[in-house]
Amino acid sequence: MNKRQLGRYFPIFVLPTFAAFCIGFIYPFLHGIYLSFCTFKTTSDAKFVGISNYVKAFQDPGFLHAFGFTALFTVVSVILINVFAFIVAYVLTSGIRGANAFRTVFFMPNLIGGVILGYIWQLIFNGILQNYGTNIKLDSRFGFWGLIILLCWQQVGYMMIIYISGLNSIPDSLYEAARVDGATRWQTLRKVTLPMLMPSITICSFLTLTNSFKLFDQNLALTAGQPGVAAAGGTTVYTTEMLALNIYNTFYQNANTRGVGQAKAVIFFLLVALIALGQLYATRKKEVQQ
Fold first, then answer.
1. Rounded Cα gap, residues 261 and 184, in angstroms
2. N or C: more exposed end of the chain, with fewer CB within 10 A?
3. Do residues 61 and 231 lie in contact, with contact meaning Cβ atoms separated by under 8 Å?
4. Amino acid 232: pLDDT
5. DSSP character for 111?
6. 31-65: b or e for each residue (b if 16 or more CB lie within 10 Å)?
7. CA separation for the pair 19, 26 (Å, rounded)
């Protein structure tokens, strides 16, 4: 089939997929933005109220706390996941015995659903913490580090595969040249391995950043945002509640605040998009410099 024939039948192949994309993604996305400016209980009774939903969202102490908690969680998890994933990948590509078996073992946690992982780790943490007369839902410090440990355990194996692929793609001639020049192992790692690994670092940083910001099911299953503390105005702030869980609770716990929940969802989308694009720009710029 030549290019002219492909051009003739192009709409036949593209239009069904494009129509499904518009119906399943574009329309709900745009309609969701519209609903963020409305009060509603169902989408058929939406009433336009302007930006009042956004004002209420930014005045909600629970939402502001969830943003700060999510930002701190994201910074810590991105650093730890990428550091551990790189270390594991570096060790497994150094020629040790049983490397393939170790890869499988480290990757397996990524195959388990987030809700199941949350409940499993809740049992593990509570079994440890009961010796100290507490549990993971009673202390926000334990809740924070519990979420960190859970996500690291789940994500390190997946990022490890990407780093292994990147390490295996580095030409051996670069390492040979470094040895000839008398470079130490640390100098080789810093001057050869890491610069050549920047594409993998870009991908892993992007994935861990977005996964951490969007974390929901593990947060719901492990801590459910607990513990809660009283805030100004008689509201309750849940100290381990992340942004996605805060939006979910706002939308479903009170039918009168669904417009506010939708406004929070739009703000959340913009935050994740801007931060992820900024990260991609920063890391890809380093790739070009290399």
1. 55
2. N
3. yes
4. 67
5. G
6. eeeebbbbbbeeeeebeeeeeebbebbeebebbeb
7. 10
AA identity, residue 268: F
Of the candidates 157, 152, 160, 80, which has an alpha carbon nearest to the alpha carbon of residue 111? Answer: 157
- Whether 224 and 191 have beta carbons less than 8 Å apart is answered as no
- Write down the pLDDT at residue 1: 55
| pLDDT at res. 288 | 44
pTM for this predicted structure: 0.88
- What pLDDT is recorded for position 2? 64
CA distance 3 to 6: 5
Q: Most distant CA pair in the chain: distance in Å? A: 74
pLDDT value of position 120? 92
pLDDT at residue 290, rounded to an integer? 47
Q: What angle do CA 58, 59, 65 make, to 5 degrees?
A: 75
The CA-atom distances, in angstroms, between 215 and each of 151, 212, 236 are 9, 5, 21
Q: Which residue has the tokens 């299953």?
A: 221
Under a CB-based contact definition with an 8 Å cutoff, are residues 107 and 161 in contact? Answer: yes
204 CB-contact burial (10 Å; exposed 0-12 / middle 13-18 / buried 19+): buried
Three-point CA angle 200, 194, 109, nearest 5° = 45
Tokens of 112: 């388990």
Rounded to 10 degrees, what is the CA torsion of 48, 53, 54, 60?
A: 180
Number of residues in the chain: 290
The closest of 192, 191, 189 to 171, measured between CA atoms, is 192
Residues of the chain scoring pLDDT < 70: 1-2, 5-6, 232-234, 286-290
Tally DSSP H helices, then E strands, for the chain.
14, 4
